[in-house]
Amino acid sequence: MAQSRYNARDRESHWQKIWDEKKLFVTREDAGGPKYYVLEMFPYPSGRIHMGHVRNYTMGDVVARYKRARGFNVLHPMGWDAFGMPAENAAMARGVHPAEWTYANIDAMRTQLKALGLSLDWSRELATCDPEYYAQEQKLFLDFLEAGLVSRRSAKVNWDPVDHTVLANEQVIDGKGWRSGALVEQRELTQWFFKISDMAEELLQALDALKRWPEKVRLMQRNWIGKSEGLQFKLDVIDADGGPAGELEVFSTRQDTIFGMTFCAVSIDHPLAIEAAKSNEALGAYIEECRRSGTTEEALEKAEKTGHELGLRVAHPFIEGKSVPLFAANFVLMGYGTGAIFGCPGHDQRDFDFCKTLGIDIIPVVAPADLSGPALEEYIAAYSDRAEIYDGEGVLINSDFLDGLTIEAAKQEIARRFEAMGKGTRKVNYRLRDWGISRQRYWGCPIPVIHCAGCGVVPVPESQLPVTLPQDVTFDKPGNPLDRHATWKNAACPKCGGDARRETDTFDTFVDSSWYFARFCSPRADVPVAREAADYWLPVDQYIGGVEHAILHLLYSRFFTRAMKQTGHAGLSEPFDGLFTQGMVNHETYKLQDGSWVTPSDVRLEGEGGARRATHAETGARVIIGPVEKMSKSKHNTVDPEDIIGHFGADTIRWFMLSDSPPERDVQWTDAGVEGAWRFVQRLWRLMDRARDWIVPHGSEMPGELSEAALRLRGVSHRRLQSVSEAIESLKFNVAVAQVHEFTRVIEAVVGNPEFENDEGVKWAAREACELAIGMFGSMMPHLGEECWSMLGHDRLLAETPWPEADPALLVEDMVTIAVQVNGKRRDELTVAQDASKEDIEAAALKLENVLRAIEGRDIKKVIVVPQRIVNVVV
RNA sequence: GCGGACGUGGUGGAACUGGUAGACACACGGGACUUAAAAUCCCGAGGGGGUAACCCCCCGUGCGGGUUCGAGUCCCGCCGUCCGCACCA
């Protein structure tokens, strides 16, 4: 028996089979209990799971198992974000159909996930590429369309002229298509949009109420929405002869600095610039030059602020007879505000830089309120020589009727005057733009509309849904297979019955993932969501995923939920009540001398610390150990979870993923760490194996009298139970792991200890301790949990056993050890009764030898006693 | 540039609302068991100094100040690392 070991592979599949047979993890919703919806971001079916998945799904599983044991009806589903480009790329590269490739990947990954022993309800599995799913998505779209949440208009897109396709911004690298390498063009295409910008204010405001979201994510969304309040107003333009030449509309959040205006500028894409360029060759050349140079991020960063005069001037709205030059400038964006600005170099860094290069006047119009007299004059005189503008609080100067006003008051005054003149309005601008959802792709959800020459855009009637993808498509040519399919796009107009053409664009795959959490509530319903189920389960109580989705996916889902509410498909606005973003899994990188990457499994490591050396296992070539980076295929620093599961089992990999690193931070994968987890699995098993015959039998009554040792053990057990519960509840899995380690040591010291051989109370308390320990680690290592649980004589599965309740009476320790300080320095410690009086503690503390020595006979000024914490003697 | 997070032993990290800094783990060293190894178990360990020894003293949570009886924790100012956004008017 001493030689026996826990055979993880064998026992894990055993318990998985039993859970499966008993349908333990199929969602229960009729028990009338409280509900808990825990969801991890569903994976893209790339074909293999990676460590990031393991970490993500393990965390979710601990929560799910914990909540289930706590008596909640738990919804813990899994599905596949199954549409998208990789399937088409595989089709192009290997001639396999995207559907075939995708479903094969799903099968492979499902098997891998099942091997992890996750308590998922597989009966609710869904794949977004399944017509059953996307049919409902099409229904949602039609309802959104009817509700005015969708628009169709022309927009600029990144167009790859070789692949004949639109590229997402991330797919454009240095101005070139990531696949074709062709220079990407900006094209105007008619596109479908979700009107998310109409909800900008609502999406921004509601962030404050998302208390269980990381502050970081809320902040990122806030920045992304980018609200700014200001004034949009018109300025008079005058031509070279001084005659009126129309108006220039600008947006500013600092209209108070209007008296500091020394120039105006428009974007190179602004109609005024384009018009002026027609008769101004030099200007045209400048605009062309800007277009060419402005693609790469690096170029943008280093680009100096340049401009070219339009040959027009702009009249100052409040200074009779004053006018300023008008430029086309490379730093003014067409996509924000009106594409035109008034330049105030005094209090805008960009304008300041611009004017310094071009030698334009700089007039400070705001000064710190405490400056006056000579100091103020000095401030004004030295202003142009500063390196940076002043943009702090202050009062207006050099500004006629605004002089002496605060910035805020001046803003109001200028806004009031423009409004009175009928030339301006207060306006709120958002950076958030509408969500373009059209993709010229095959492997996505078809947009259910028909284009008719006579009737225009006609929605596909619900009776004709779903619009399914044709099977017979080819990928041998670039472009959209749907578009060149012989017959698919031919359709009769639902309105007039005449010949018409199907929309051949498909949805951005972010559409698919914007509502899957709602679909999980009723995955087989013939409506997008069955309201009763959704009203019960939503919102998701705990959503867990990578921070890389902090903006797009989470913002889109928030929009979608609101849109679903508007169209009666949901009863709430916010889909995710609690959000947790876990860190990445990192690993060392390895390179050969020639710079090529080497996979960890091909590397042999020797030595330690600075003397660590790495060689190539096969060739013996010298390998350079590189920095620790996120596991990625491109750097070949991945470790395949399947190998680890095959070697050590699921519990080991799960335990390692939860150990050490706080879950929101990155974790470094190390072989030593996994081996440590493996040893602990064995150690727990051996402990329970040893304990089974030593502790009292299963079901024994608690002895009437417990020895001090037994009581002490019970206290430790219950306090541990309490702290581990709290750690899991707050997702501090690394802390929970540490506590289990600690508790295990305590039990090991008791079980089999001859000192307690005849102490039935200790043996009873030891059983209690073992059982509580199993409960604690059972949510993290569920197979080992079941194994140990049954070893101790239980027939009922651990997965069916409620979470134990800590006995409040046992949570307080009778004796506490507190530190005794003299002048804030710890000199000794004191063990006293938990409820000892301040006076008693003080008296006892002042008798301690170390304390007396530290006092050295000096006068005691004060003694601070904080019961159960500390004593501080001040001399 | 703007915004945010973080900085604790050789390493990952603990430390509740300010109250014994370094829990727990990894790596390391020593020992036990063994013919040997693996596995396992026990012990040690922030740095420095003192003592024959039980032990004792000094320093120590990026750096410099401050508040407090008491600061890893709070405040001010630096430095560094990471992340997000980026000419957003």
Write a compact overview of the structure shown.
By secondary structure, the protein is of the alpha+beta class.
- The radius of gyration computed from the alpha-carbon positions, rounded to a whole number of angstroms, is 35 Å
Helix content: 25-40%
| Distance, first to last CA | 62 Å
The computed structural class is alpha+beta
What integer is the average pLDDT?
90
Unreliable residue stretches: none
Shape: globular
Strand content: 15-25%
Biggest beta-sheet profile: 7 strands, mixed
**Counted beta strands:** 37
Summed up, the helix count is 28
Topology:
Layout: H1 8-21, E1 35-40, H2 51-69, E2 73-75, E3 79-80, H3 85-94, H4 98-115, E4 126-127, H5 131-146, E5 150-160, E6 165-167, E7 172-173, E8 176-177, E9 185-194, H6 200-205, H7 215-225, E10 228-238, E11 244-252, E12 263-266, H8 271-278, H9 281-293, H10 297-302, E13 307-315, E14 323-329, E15 340-343, H11 349-358, E16 366-367, H12 373-381, E17 395-396, H13 407-421, E18 424-429, E19 435-436, E20 438-439, E21 449-452, E22 456-459, H14 481-484, E23 490-492, E24 499-502, E25 506-507, H15 509-512, H16 516-519, H17 531-537, E26 542-546, H18 552-566, E27 579-582, E28 585-592, E29 597-598, E30 603-606, E31 613-616, E32 622-630, H19 641-648, H20 650-658, E33 667-668, H21 671-691, H22 708-729, H23 733-750, H24 760-778, H25 782-791, H26 808-811, E34 815-822, E35 825-833, H27 838-845, H28 849-855, E36 862-866, E37 870-874
Parallel strand pairs: 1-2, 1-26, 3-4, 12-14, 26-27, 28-33, 34-37
Antiparallel strand pairs: 5-6, 5-9, 7-8, 9-19, 10-11, 10-13, 10-18, 12-15, 13-14, 16-17, 20-25, 21-22, 21-24, 23-24, 28-29, 28-32, 30-31, 31-32, 34-35, 36-37
The chain binds one RNA strand of 89 nucleotides through α7, β11, α10, β15 and α11.
